[in-house]
Design brief:
single chain; alpha+beta; two-stranded antiparallel sheet; 5 helices; binds adenosine-5'-triphosphate; histidine kinase
Length: 163
């Protein structure tokens, strides 16, 4: 669907701010310049759930998580940045693999099965986008997903029309 990003992101992020606050963390949306992009709202919502759940899961109390969306030329980016435990360079290549978890003993405490990021990558791919992980200097992790503003019609619109 053609989606106004500012409103869409606000609706998704708001409930998470309360969850974060209840965990002694802060979570906020950097004000989004309003622009429109064509996307599957259910899938992008799920992508944000995965990235935000991870940001919360791997951030100690007192840390901040910021979410933003920005327009760059004919593309747009979704960025989820945290100040959490970070991901070592050697693990970065594998975190998008199915069932891969950096530290299974630690992960067992935090739950999860290592599927989240492989689903995230699948959702981004359906939108003809890319997702990368970076350091969030001085501390933590940043996930940056980059999408074309108007991916091909195969993704969008079709499910709205009865065929
Ligand atoms: P789930 O399937 O419930 O999401 P998971 O978090 O273990 O479980 P993924 O979301 O695929 O699985 O993440 C894979 C691994 O990448 C995690 O186990 C964790 O080690 C690492 N990781 C993901 N996001 C972050 C983050 N924001 N900060 C630090 N490590 C992260």
């Amino acid at each position: 669907e053609v989606t106004r990003l500012a409103r869409f992101m606000t609706d998704i992020v708001e409930p998470y701010s309360e969850i974060a606050a209840s965990q002694g963390k802060s979570l906020s949306l950097t004000p989004v310049t309003d622009f429109k992009a064509t996307l599957d709202q259910n899938l992008i919502h799920q992508l944000m759930n995965i990235l935000i759940d991870n940001a919360l899961k791997y951030s100690p109390q007192g840390r901040a998580i910021t979410i933003s969306a920005r327009l760059i030329g004919r593309k747009w980016q979704l960025i989820v940045a945290d100040q959490g435990i970070g991901i070592q360079a050697g693990d970065r290549r594998r975190i998008f693999d199915r069932f891969y978890r950096v530290d299974t003993s630690r992960s067992r405490q935090t739950g999860g099965n290592g599927l989240g990021l492989s689903i995230a990558q699948w959702i981004v791919g359906l939108h003809h986008g890319t997702i990368v992980v970076k350091d969030n200097l001085p501390q933590g992790t940043q996930f940056v997903a980059t999408f074309p503003l108007n991916p091909s019609a195969s993704l969008t619109g079709r499910r709205d029309k009865k065929q």
